[in-house]
Amino acid sequence: MCGIVGYIGSRPAADIVVSGLKKLEYRGYDSAGLAVLDPAAPSIGLFRAVGKIAELDKAIASHPPASTCTVGIGHTRWATHGAPTVANAHPHLSMDGRIAVVHNGIIENYLALRSRLESKGYVFKSETDTEVLAHLIQDCLDGGLAESVMRALVHVEGTYGIAVVSSDFPGVLVAARKGSPIVIGDCRGEAIVASDVSAIIQHTDKVVFLDDGDVAVLTPEGAELRTLGNSTVSRSSTVVDWDPGAIEKGGFEHFMLKEIFEQPEAIANTIRGRLLLDDGTCKLSGLQLDPQKMAEITNIVVTACGTSYYAGLVGSYAFEQFAGIPARIEQAAEFRYRNPIIAPNTALVSISQSGETADTLAAVREAKRKGALTLSICNVVGSTIAREAGRGVYLHAGPEIGVASTKAFICQVAVLDMMAIMLGRTRRMSNSEGTTMVAAMLRLPEIVKRVLEQNDAIRAIAEKYHQARDFFYIGRGYMFPAALEGALKLKEISYIHAEGYHAAELKHGPIALLDEHVPVVACVPQIPGHRKTLGNVQECRARRAPVIAIATEGDPDIGGLANDVISIPECPEFIAPIPVVVAEQLFAYHMANLRGEPIDQPRNLAKSVTVE
Ligand code: AGP
């Protein structure tokens, strides 16, 4: 998604803003821009370029702004309205050239606003919804910049995260949010605003997340928060425990590979202090639910998108199997519009690495309107979904920069398993059953490490198959979501067409596609369903399809059936998706790398989908 950075203080703004934008590159974008102004000689300097930020650097270098330009806003744009062109790149200027705006989100009534402004003589130079905002603020100018922005935003329907500067008000930078994240760095003698903590953490670890309807007035003396109605509001600050180095690649070729290899540490952080072996249960204090409250939950709906959805599918199985609670998984985009039935005492569990996915956020809001108890599982502290759900669990997995989600998936599954154990222990799960499950979970960092040791072997297998055009992934039971996730990993970074199927579904149609050119990844560890999936492997081999099996170390049957085998440590079914998916992540990574694809920022994709 788009990235926003703004600065006001005593240092040259251009360097700070552009280096902040570079921290947001991972979010995916197709153009970038910067607006700066010198409080002593206020006229807006505007720089915009299509493509990567390196192009913006060139544009700035051709007319470097004076070091006295200590106010600035910048943007990386992922095109939604209008192609990626310089004219459509942000910042956008008002018609008098005295106001500059950067914007994340979608203004749904921009056409109506545009025609109203055009009828008043405003001339538009872009196809974007954002430019409407720049002219609208000019049209609403009265009093200070903040008051003018508030008056303009009252007319806006849709979502926004914005930063605004004006040569008429050089001592202030205004930010506002509704549906698209905005975070402020708590600094001394200067103020920094961004759409993502990653752009701020190098300056301060104290941040304030704006809520919907908040307007921030930033000056070199700090930030003042107001509502759209111009009354003062206060928000508590959050200390971000990420170290700036964690956002660099740490010696790996790609963020994705770094994050794959971080997984033993990431999952150790997720379970740390939360597994109570002696009591055979877990402690997730963020749920703010005592056992009595947990015992009242009679239905669970899990909702998410993409990889988080597949983790949620694993969780829905675990909730039913170990807590005996009816659980269903719903695509967030479906849930929010289909008027779902929410029975009394239903818990809605939303899962989102970024905590900003628009469809998942909308599903949480709809579930709240229908009276559900909303719980979230997020990785980004203070993210919108985490705050609006009100209760939940943070992954503590550290920043996930690669667009393809890796460590978030395995940590989400771990949290869901812990929730299932907690819920189970308020019902028929005994202490010894809980202890057995908790003991298995305590092995997770070691289990993941053992899979990572297969890296060279997995790369060697990828070398055999990286020119394939189509792939199947199959599995059943807890391996069905693992198959779906493996297929998503491969398709989104290697661009190979890959489909995940329930292994039993093959004979209902998909097997017609199999021949020697269509490799099949079979998720077939020694857990319930193993024997039947071996049968499906034989069906694939009978159609000459090569089979890559992800199987339990020492499985005596798989070697004679599959063309290639990736071994994972023995483990119970409720955690088996974790080592299997780690193997799939490495496979997908090597396949994409061998094909020379841009792994961290795959084409057409963004790290956080904050628009519908
Ligand atoms: C996963 O590799 C994808 N990048 C994508 O499917 C992602 O999982 C999805 O957009 C949900 O994101 P979230 O977890 O931040 O809500």
Structural write-up:
With 612 residues, this protein is an alpha/beta fold. The protein folds into 3 domains: 2-240, Aminohydrolase, N-terminal nucleophile (Ntn) domain (Glutamine Phosphoribosylpyrophosphate, subunit 1, domain 1, 4-Layer Sandwich), CATH 3.60.20; 244-442, Glucose-6-phosphate isomerase like protein, domain 1 (Rossmann fold, 3-Layer(aba) Sandwich), CATH 3.40.50.10490; 448-598, 3-Layer(aba) Sandwich (Rossmann fold), CATH 3.40.50.10490. Helices cover 34% and strands 21% of the residues. The strands form 5 sheets. It has an 8-stranded antiparallel β-sheet with strand order 3-2-4-1-10-9-11-14, with helices on one face. Strands 5-6-7-8-12-13 form a 6-stranded antiparallel β-sheet, covered by helices on one side. A 5-stranded parallel β-sheet has the order 18-17-19-20-21, with helices on both faces. Helix 3 crosses helix 4 (130-139). The protein is globular. It binds 2-deoxy-2-amino glucitol-6-phosphate (AGP). The site of 2-deoxy-2-amino glucitol-6-phosphate has 15 residues, from helix 9. 2-deoxy-2-amino glucitol-6-phosphate is lined by residues 305-308, 352-354, 357, 360, 403-405, 492, 608-609.
